[in-house]
User: Which sequence fits this backbone?
């Protein structure tokens, strides 16, 4: 079995760490580029949401590199994502990629048995190692989150932004060649030390912008045209509302111990949307309120065109905007999103936020 | 004076209007449904909703706008779930909020939640809650109204199963018996199929040509459920399930001469169910199948050309 999985931000690092520890060979899909998207789109229904198309492109790249089994999580709140698997399977078959197996890890909401069963299928005879590898992968995620936070702090303040860019580039190159959680943790910690050593302007008081919206498009930098990095380079301190670690914590770890995830988000979103409707609407609204209360100067909502739950959030957010007097930029991404217009919109927004937060 | 409750003619109007109408009338409220969709209603809807919402949601916004100065309150129930274990679509759950934060100067919105995800009994509770919100507090009369509404709903369903369309039943238009020369399955959400403005009178056009039209609402729910068992993953959206189940029924049934699907631009459920149906149709279905996608800019001319093409296909095969 040669395993692969779709890209979504740092997910590949976490999954690779886990698979290395279990002892299963896994293929990291080639990093997502425009040609990945084109590849995926060519066999996708036109009106499906963006993550579907990009993921499909990732699979094809990996299959060409020798993968024969795809592992994905089942659903994030009842939404189209839950049916990606079966449809993509058919699409791959129709395109002539036969005998590809998809293992869908349904989040434990639908029962832990299924979740573990999926993992056992992957682990084969090494299933004893599942839990320790999972815990180590979680540690990797935590460490990544803390590295990202450091990056969000450093980027706007760094005198030499290119230095940071090179550093991150090297990190990405090296992380794919190290093996297992121990080496990965070591590399992440080392990178953190190097980020810390970058010369920064301590006196700078950057504007703070919170990023909210649909989980895939805020975590996967390709899909949002590297919004975080662009903002950082413009001198903005970024805060991202969802990370891989958060997802695991709220969807796997907390439920495993009999607790409900996303407590803060549910509480804060309640006055605006009292029920769960699918997707991450509550998280989006909840974080918007949280950021507004904790001193962010502006918010950016990112979601794919026609994303159902985020369209609901999008209709509600103007109320948050009014209640807390915090400007919000709405970015809808799809295949046609052009670089030029995008940068201009970000710059105009940052200008606006900076001038109104004085 | 009795309270005037406005009911927008959008979303699940054509599924539950007889039910809610008899429930509220029996309680003593005055019911004001919004008129059929017009260009003006659509334009207002487009103006007062966010750009990338789907067409039906925009139309609903227009209907709410058209009612807002004529009634004491507007009914936009939160239809989280109308059958066990299934949602409809995320937008149904968030509909009251979408409207409240988009259309200005609204009278109070009755947004009682209907959530049958766990069991059907919560319906009774929800109806009590709705009655209380409207200041009807007499349990005897509430019970009576519920029973009346259930009875009316049953009759409505029977009429549907006999091949009537909801817009005709609600409008009191009897079914015309005329000779038909073909029979097709028409797949789509009720708020597209029976909204004559949105669908550009598709059903009427088909009937005028002597085509008998069978829609998902005319089919038996149990049968749809059963047909959907063949899906490799359980469908957790009842809206999508009804599309897929009906399409499978039509494809399996040799008495149909073809199948049409009417989809809304920007509809997530359609994109998914549509893809599944399309794949199945391409593999196994030998008869004409066509998808008509509509948005607020669809022109009559191009639409008619496509329908003509479909007629040609049917009559050739
Ligand atoms: S949340 Fe949005 S992007 Fe994700 S599956 Fe649903 S519609 Fe698609
Ligand atoms: S099912 Fe489709 S058309 Fe209906 S509300 Fe949802 S997205 Fe819109």
Assistant:
């Amino acid at each position: 079995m040669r395993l692969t999985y779709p890209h979504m931000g740092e997910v590949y690092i976490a999954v690779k760490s886990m698979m290395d520890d279990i002892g299963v060979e896994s293929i990291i899909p080639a990093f997502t580029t425009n040609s990945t998207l084109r590849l995926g789109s060519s066999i996708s229904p036109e009106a499906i949401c963006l993550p579907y198309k990009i993921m499909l492109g990732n699979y094809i790249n990996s299959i060409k590199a020798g993968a024969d089994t795809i592992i994905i999580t089942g659903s994030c709140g009842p939404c189209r994502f839950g049916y990606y698997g079966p449809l993509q399977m058919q699409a791959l078959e129709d395109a002539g990629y036969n005998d590809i197996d998809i293992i869908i890890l349904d989040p434990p909401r639908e029962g832990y048995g299924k979740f573990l069963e999926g993992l056992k299928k992957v682990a084969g005879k090494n299933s004893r190692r599942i839990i320790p590898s999972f815990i180590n992968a979680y540690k990797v995620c935590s460490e990544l989150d803390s590295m990202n936070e450091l990056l969000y702090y450093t980027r706007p303040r760094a005198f030499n932004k290119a230095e940071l860019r090179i550093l991150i580039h090297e990190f990405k190159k090296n992380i794919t060649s190290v093996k297992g959680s121990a080496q990965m943790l070591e590399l992440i910690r080392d990178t953190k030390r190097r980020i810390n050593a970058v010369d920064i302007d301590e006196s700078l008081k950057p504007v703070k912008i919170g990023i909210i919206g649909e989980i895939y498009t805020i975590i996967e930098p390709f899909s949002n045209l590297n919004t975080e990095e662009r903002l950082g380079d413009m001198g903005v301190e970024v805060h991202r509302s969802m990370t891989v670690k958060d997802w695991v914590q709220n969807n796997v770890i907390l439920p495993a111990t009999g607790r409900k995830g996303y407590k803060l988000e549910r509480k804060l979103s309640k006055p605006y949307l009292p029920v769960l409707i699918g997707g991450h609407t509550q998280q989006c609204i909840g974080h918007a309120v949280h950021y507004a209360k904790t001193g962010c100067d502006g918010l950016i909502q990112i979601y794919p065109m026609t994303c159902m739950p985020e369209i609901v959030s999008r209709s509600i957010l103007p109320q948050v905007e009014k209640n807390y007097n915090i400007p919000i930029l709405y970015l809808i991404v799809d295949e046609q999103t052009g670089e030029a217009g995008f940068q201009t919109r970000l710059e105009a927004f940052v200008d606006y936020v900076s001038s109104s937060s004085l | 004076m009795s309270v005037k409750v406005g009911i927008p003619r959008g979303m699940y109007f054509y599924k539950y209007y007889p039910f809610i109408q008899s429930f509220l009338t029996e309680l003593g409220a005055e019911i004001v449904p919004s008129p059929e969709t017009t260009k003006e209603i659509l334009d207002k809807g487009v103006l007062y909703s966010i750009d990338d919402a789907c067409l039906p949601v925009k139309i609903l916004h227009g209907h709410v706008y058209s009612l807002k100065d004529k009634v004491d309150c507007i009914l936009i129930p939160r239809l989280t779930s109308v059958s066990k274990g299934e949602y409809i679509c995320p937008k149904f759950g968030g509909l009251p909020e979408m409207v409240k934060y988009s259309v200005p100067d609204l009278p109070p919105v009755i947004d009682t939640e209907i959530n049958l995800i766990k069991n059907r009994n919560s319906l009774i509770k929800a109806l009590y809650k709705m009655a209380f919100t409207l200041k009807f507090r007499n349990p005897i009369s509430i019970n009576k109204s519920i029973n009346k509404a259930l009875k009316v709903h049953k009759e409505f369903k029977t009429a549907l199963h006999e091949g009537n369309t909801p817009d005709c039943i609600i409008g009191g238009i009897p079914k015309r018996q005329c000779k038909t020369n073909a029979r097709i399955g028409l797949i789509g959400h009720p708020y597209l199929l029976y909204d004559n403005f949105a669908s550009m009178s598709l059903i009427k056009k088909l009937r005028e040509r002597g085509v008998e039209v069978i829609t998902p609402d005319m089919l038996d729910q149990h049968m749809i459920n059963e047909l959907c068992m063949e899906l490799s993953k359980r469908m957790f959206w009842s809206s999508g399930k009804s599309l897929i189940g009906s399409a499978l029924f039509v494809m399996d049934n040799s008495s149909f001469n073809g199948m049409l699907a009417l989809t809304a631009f920007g509809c997530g459920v359609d994109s998914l169910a549509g893809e599944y149906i399309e794949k199945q149709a391409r593999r196994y279905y030998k008869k004409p199948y066509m998808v008509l996608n509509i948005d607020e800019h669809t022109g009559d001319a191009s639409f008619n050309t496509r329908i003509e093409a479909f007629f040609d296909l049917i009559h050739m095969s």
Chain B has two domains: 4-161, 176-316. The two ends of chain B are 60 Å apart (CA to CA).
